[in-house]
Amino acid sequence: MLYERLDDLREYVSGRLCAVLRENGGTAQSLVERETAAARYHERLAHLQAAENGLCFGRLDFRDGERRYIGRIGLLDDGDGDPLLLDWRAPAARAFYLATAASPDGVRRRRHIRIRHRDVTEINDEILDLEGARQEGGVTGEAALLAAVSATRTGRMGDIVETIQAEQDRIIRDEHRGVLVVQGGPGTGKTVVALHRAACLLYTHRETLARRGVLIVGPNTTFLRYIGQVLPSLGETGVLLATVGELYPGLVARRAEPAAAAEIKGRAAMAEVVAAAVRDRQWVPEDALDVVLDRETVPLTRADCERIRERARASLLPHNQARPIVFRGVVDALARTIADLYGEDVLGGENLFGEEDVEEIRAELRTDPGVREAVDRLWPALTPQDLLTGLYASAEWIAAAAPGLTEAERALLLREPGGGWTPADVPLLDEAAELLGEDTSAAEAEARRRHREQVAFAQEVLHIAEGSRSTDQEDDVEDVLSVTDLLDAEALAGRHEDADTRTAAERAAADRTWTFGHVIVDEAQELSPMAWRLLMRRCPTRWMTLVGDVAQTGDPAGASSWEEVLAPYAGDRWRLARLNVNYRMPAEIAEVAADVLAELDPGLESPRSVRATGVRPWRLRCEDLAAGLPELVRREAAAAGEGRVAVIVPAGRLAEAEPAVVAAAPGASVSGRDAEVDLERPVSLLTVRDAKGLEFDSVILVDPAGIVAESPRGLNDLYVALTRATQRLGVVHPGPVPAHLARLEETLAD
Ligand SMILES: Nc1ncnc2c1ncn2[C@@H]1O[C@H](COP(=O)(O)OP(=O)(O)OP(=O)(O)O)[C@@H](O)[C@H]1O
C-alpha cells in the first residue's frame, strides 16, 4: 500500500513535470515561472525516487493501540489525508530513535523492517517492557545495528536512518543556533551524523536553507566523493560539498607544496602579512613623481603623494575601491601645481587663476592618460592573484611584509610566478580579496546599462499590453485595473533581472562573497587558522556544525583545542557535544589504537566498541616490501571478499609500495598516481592524509615508524591509520616493532 501511494505520487509529479516541459511560448516572465516549476518537480521526483529503497523501515506500536510507520519520506493517505508513513525527521517519528525500555515514551514495541526490492525480508522486534529495562544495553535496535556495522563496505558511505542511536539523534536534531562542535573518537559516526543533521535542518528550516544553501566542507575530494551519496539517498540534493581549496571561484588549487610551506601559510599571522603586502603596494616616491601629461610634465611632490595616500587609507575602503579617492587627489594636486605655475602674478599679487579656471584645469586632467598612469603607479588596481604572485616572487617584498618570519620560513614562501595555486593559497587569496575589494565601477556601469535596456524593453511590453486592451472594457468600466496600473516598467524590468533559476548551491559555488545558511565542517581539526577566517566569512550568522577529533589532527597547521579555534569568532556561542560509541572498529582493533591514543594523550578516552569479531589484528616484520607485500595484499583481498582493502603507507614509501600492490591487485587505485583515489575498487593504496575519514573492511598498515617519523604530528597520523578498518587490521614493519604496537602478536590472521 505504501509503495502504491509512492507510485501514484511519482506518476502525478512526472505528469506535472512533462506538462511544464511541453509548454512553450509566452513571456519571459512565464518562461522563468515554468523553469522554476520544472526545477521544483524535478526535486520532488528525486525525493520520491530516493525513497524507493527501504521506503519504510520501522514501526512503533504504542500502548494505547496507535501504530506509526517510519520511513524515508512522509506519505499521506490520498483520501482522508491521514499520515500513512512518517518522515524519519518528523517530531512524531522521534520515539523510534529515543524510546528505551527504561523510558518507553508510551511505546510498547519498536519494529525494524528490512525491505529488498519491495519485499519485506526481515523483521526485528524490541519489546520495551520492564524485563527489557533490566537488561538495557545502551543501543537501540541492536540486531539491525549490528547487521549495519558489520556489513561489507562498498567504497561509498551509506545513510543510517534505520539505526540512528539516541546520542546521535540528539545531535542530529539539536536546535542550537550557534556553533555546535561534535567531538568524538574515530568511528563514532561524526561524519554520518553531520550529514543526517544537514538533512534534518533542511527539513525543519527549508525556507531559509533552500535560499541561502548549506555548505559541507571536507578535507579532500576523495573524502567528498566517499560521502557524496548520503544526502541524495535521503532525497536532499541542493547542498554544496567542497574542500577549502575549492572555495575560491574561478580557480582550481591543485599545485603541491612542502607541508612546511602550507603550515606557514595557514598561520593566523598571515592575515597581517597579506595586509602589509597590500599596504606595500600603496607607493610613495622617494622624492617626486613626474607626471607626463598631454602638454607638459608636472611633478607630484612626495608630500602631495603622502597626503593622497593618507586620505585614501583613512577612507577605510578596500584598496581597489579607494582608487577614485587617489584619482581625485592626484587631479587636485596637479591642478593646484599648474595653477600656481601659470597663475602666478609677476607683480606679487594674488594668483590670477580663479576657482573656475582651476576647475577647468581639473576637467582637462580627468581625461589625461598621464593622470591614470600616475594613479596606477601610486595605487595600482590589484587582483588577489596579482598581489600574491608578486609577493611570492620577490624576496624583498616577502621580507617587508613578513618581518616576523625567520629567513628559512620566508625562503619557503618564495616561488616563481605561474604554475597554479595550492590549497593553502586559497585562504590567502580570499583574505586579499577582502582587503582589495573589487573596483566595481566598470561592473556597475555595465549593470546600469543593462537595467536601462530592461526598462526600455519593459516599457515596450507595457505599451503593447496597453494597446491590446479591450476597448469595450475601457468604455464600460472606468476603474478596471490595467496592466500598467499594476506594474510599472521599473518593476517589470526588476522581475527579469531576478530571473536566476540556479539553485542556491550553484549560485554559491560561483560567488566568493556568498554567505551560507548553515555550514558543516568535517575533519574540522585539520583546518588552519587562515582557513577558519575564510569559512567564518562565509557564515556570518555562525550557524555551524563542526565535527572532528583533536586526537586525529594531522595537519601541522591544524587545531589542538576547540576553544582556541572558536573563541575569536563565536565567543561563548558554541557548544560541545560528544559521541562515545565506536561503530567502526571491532574491540580487537580498537584496543590496539587505544595504546597509541594513551601515548598521544593519556587524558583522552577511547570510544567504546559496539561489537567484537574474534579476529585478532596481526603484525609481520618484512624488510623487503617488493617481496613480501603482494602475498599479504592477496590474502587480505581474499578475506575481504566483496569488501574493500586499503594499504596505508608513509608518503615516502608510496613509490616503493605501488608495484608491490599493483602486482597483487592490478586494478588497484593508487593515491598520488590517480587524479582521485577510486574507493570503489577492491584495493586502494593510500597515504594517511588520503585515508582520513575513510573506512575499509581490511587495512594493511605499512611502516608505522615511518608514519610517525614523517610529520610533527606523526603519532596522530598513526592513530588515524589504525582506526580505518571495520573487520581486519594487519601491520607490516620493516624494522623492530614500535613499542606502542607491542600488543600485536607476530602472526598472520587466518
Ligand atoms: N547508528 C549507526 N548505525 C549504523 N552505522 C553507523 C551508525 N553510526 C555510525 N555508523 C557507521 O560507522 C562508521 C563510522 O562512521 P563515521 O565515518 O561517521 O565516523 P567518524 O566519527 O566520522 O570517524 P572518523 O573520525 O574516523 O572519520 C560508518 O560506516 C557509519 O556508517
Describe the structure.
It is a single chain. The protein has 750 residues and is an alpha/beta fold. It has five domains: 51 residues; 96 residues, no CATH class; 144 residues, 3-Layer(aba) Sandwich (Rossmann fold), CATH 3.40.50.300; 91 residues, no CATH class; 160 residues, 3-Layer(aba) Sandwich (Rossmann fold). The protein is 46% helix and 15% strand. The strands form five sheets. A six-stranded mixed β-sheet has the order 3-4-2-1-5-6, with helices on one face. It has a six-stranded parallel β-sheet with strand order 9-8-12-13-7-14. Strand 3 and strand 4 form a beta hairpin. Helix 14 packs across helix 16. The protein is globular. Pfam families: UvrD_C_2 (PF13538). GO terms for molecular function: 3'-5' DNA helicase activity; ATP binding; DNA binding; hydrolase activity. Keywords: ATP-binding, Helicase, Hydrolase, Nucleotide-binding.
Compute the average pLDDT: 87
SS content category: alpha/beta
Q: Give a list of the ligands.
A: adenosine-5'-triphosphate
Q: How many helices in DSSP terms?
A: 33
For the secondary structure, the number of strands is 22
Features:
750 residues; alpha/beta; Rossmann fold; 6-stranded parallel beta sheet; 33 helices; globular; binds adenosine-5'-triphosphate; ATP binding; DNA binding; P-loop_NTPase
Produce a short descriptive summary:
The chain is an alpha/beta fold and 750 residues long. Helix content is 46%, strand content 15%.
